């Protein structure tokens, strides 16, 4: 059977939950603003401030559209040469040569002892979950840039790496292992220079 050129998409659950929290409030803002504008066409009660409702409707629509996009654009997927960690703000490609190990951990062990109330509301459904810890030799881009664009809970607590909260962590672990093994085999099969050995 032919090997797949890419793995399955594993949704990042917390990103998707966060996107859902934006969706209905933004839709409600758009709906109320649209209703106010329609009412103004009939009565001209708010005509002196009608621009404000146009702005609110536009903002509500933009946030709603972003929430839909963010929910679909947040996942982990294996490719022959790298692991793609897709997020709305910054997609990250992690080469298999950077991967030290992939292991399951309890999500709560990667979090601080105390969480603020908004953090707790977002993360609480996942505190008892087993998640993937992708330990790396180094990040693929500068850590400061990653921390600017990725949420803090995606960073491993005591090592260099990412914490991946997905529905089926065992399937993701198997796919990372399978693609990584094939990457190693391909690179070991290449001719090596006579003056030294290539390390992976």
Written account of the structure:
The protein is an alpha+beta fold and 200 residues long. It has a domain at 96-188. Helix content is 44%, strand content 17%. The protein has five helices and seven strands. The strands form two sheets. The protein has a four-stranded antiparallel β-sheet with strand order 1-2-3-4. It has a three-stranded antiparallel β-sheet with strand order 5-6-7, covered by helices on one side. 20% of the residues are buried.
Brief synopsis:
With about 200 residues, the chain is of the alpha+beta class. It has helices at about 15-45, 50-70, 115-125, 145-150, 170-190, and strands at about 10, 75-80, 80-85, 90-95, 100-105, 130-135, 160-165.
